[in-house]
């Protein structure tokens, strides 16, 4: 079982009628969930998703606690992902500077000011104390874009809403563990603590844009994770690829002490037993593969050649190889193009018309190979 747990929040429609509704936050949240479940093979009950009316401030805080912190299925060291696609804003204090806020569904209703930066910081600190620092928070929102002519023109497609009429009198009523206001002055969502890694759509003062196809950041991020060998690239390196896809107008970034780690500290990227290691024979002309006649391999069996054997990490076909010599427990194959000295192969076609000895297991497989 993949040891990854997530809370995903997407909000297009807001209860407060004066807030400009968004178009693609819910779709983005569903796409992130699909990536976790389909690509990374995360069990469905490991992911909690809150959309629109479900994503009230109280419900988000309650789900964060019950699904991540208090969940008895989670263990210390498990990978945790918290994803938000919604409006952001900056709420002014009754006195002093403003604070950044993620706009929950009930933002602006009564005394609800959404999820404040310092409140989320405290929640993440509580989570890290309970489960460790393998925490990734992804924000496809913006909080205080400069009101330049260009930004005003993009207002309809910006994940930000003004909050001129909302005043926060209390950082987080009823949360005795909230850090002192002085300790978190000017924290902002972009000042990541050492307890987690932040992947954000843009820095403070810039805009996070969306279209009907999705948020620019989330769309580029999901393209990147499907095209990148995630098991051996850092979060910072991955964000470089995201930036190149977005181009100008928006600058996503990564922050936190763990940005040099792979995403989720590589927890989901476990060996895929469908791949078998191969290396070159002494003459460097033929690949030597640890599968032979007892496994059903014959002359003419076809393999695809890959750079690694990690599940959930982009693993393209580098070449195809055709078996030319076969022995009981190993075989030689001719690669049709150049490949590295050590690589991994997967069966494409057995090309054997007879049966094979199903009582013998391949050395890298825990289940029987099938034609």
From TrEMBL:
One of its GO terms (molecular function) is cysteine-type endopeptidase activity. One of its GO terms (cellular component) is cytoplasm. InterPro entries: Metacaspase (IPR050452). GO terms for biological process: proteolysis. Belongs to the peptidase C14B family. PANTHER family: METACASPASE-1, METACASPASE-4. This is Uncharacterized protein.
